[in-house]
Amino acid sequence: MGDDSDEHLLREAGRIATALGRMFPGLCEVVLHDLRDPSHPARVVENGSPGREVGDPAAELARLSDPGQPGVLQNRPSRFPDGRPAKSTSIGIENAAGRRIAALRVDLDVSVLSPVALALSNLVATDAGESPEPQAHARDRDALRRTVERAAAERAATPRALPREAKRELVRRLRADGHFASHDAARTIADLLGVSRATVYNYAR
């Protein structure tokens, strides 16, 4: 009875995986992992990246199978096997007995969307101030803004939505790359990240 009901649950989950993948062709990879079969858990693969096939092992099988882990691991930065950045969500599927028997994983291809997000962000951006800035100064600030937005897009987030440690790492990278040479770089970075200028200097230490 349990095996039959589990199999029915997996078939229904497989239909959902297929439908999701076909709704977003070329944009996201959807994989249903059968956690009852540790050696070949990939049961359904839709929009699979090159080399991904039914029967493939799951890199995070231990985490997905662990009942102590959250039932949903959402919006995590990840990468496809070929290196493209992805935004990943995994959903554990439990049977009537409360045993986690499957996991539905959706990987959104951020490399497709990041340029669009960056272009839109630049399109709506405005510069504060009553007088025109020197041309070189404006170019420096635009370059800094693009760098920050690109770094956030690689993590499938906006600059302000980055976790604190990611913001700290980004600020230190900006300083190492010489972006603090501009006289108001700290203010620009603070505005983009949604923190105070003092916090930016603290992160840069």
Q: Ends: how far apart?
A: 61 Å
- Number of strand segments: 5
Strand order of the largest sheet: 2-1-5-4-3
CATH topology of the largest domain: Beta-Lactamase
CATH architecture of the largest domain: 2-Layer Sandwich
Biggest β-sheet, characterized?
5 strands, antiparallel
CATH level-four homologous superfamily name of the largest domain: PAS domain
Q: Domains counted in the coordinates: how many?
A: 2
Number of helices: 7
* Uncertain spans: 130-134
CATH domain class name of the largest domain:
Alpha Beta
Mean pLDDT: 80
Give a short summary of the structure.
This protein has 205 residues and is an alpha+beta fold. It has helices at 2-23, 61-65, 110-124, 135-154, 164-176, 185-193, 197-204, and strands at residues 28-34, 42-46, 72-79, 85-94, 100-109.
Question: What does this entry look like structurally?
Answer:
The protein is an alpha+beta fold and 205 residues long. It has 2 domains: 2-110, 2-Layer Sandwich (Beta-Lactamase), CATH 3.30.450; 125-204, no CATH class. 45% of the residues lie in helices and 20% in strands. It has 7 helices and 5 strands, in the order αββαβββααααα. The chain has helices at residues 2-23, 61-65, 110-124, 135-154, 164-176, 185-193, 197-204, and strands at residues 28-34, 42-46, 72-79, 85-94, 100-109. It has a 5-stranded antiparallel β-sheet with strand order 2-1-5-4-3. Helix 3 packs antiparallel against helix 4 and helix 6 (185-193) crosses helix 7 (197-204). Mean pLDDT is 80; it is low at 130-134. Residues 144-204 form the Transcriptional regulator DauR-like HTH domain. InterPro entries: DauR-like, DauR-like_HTH, YheO.
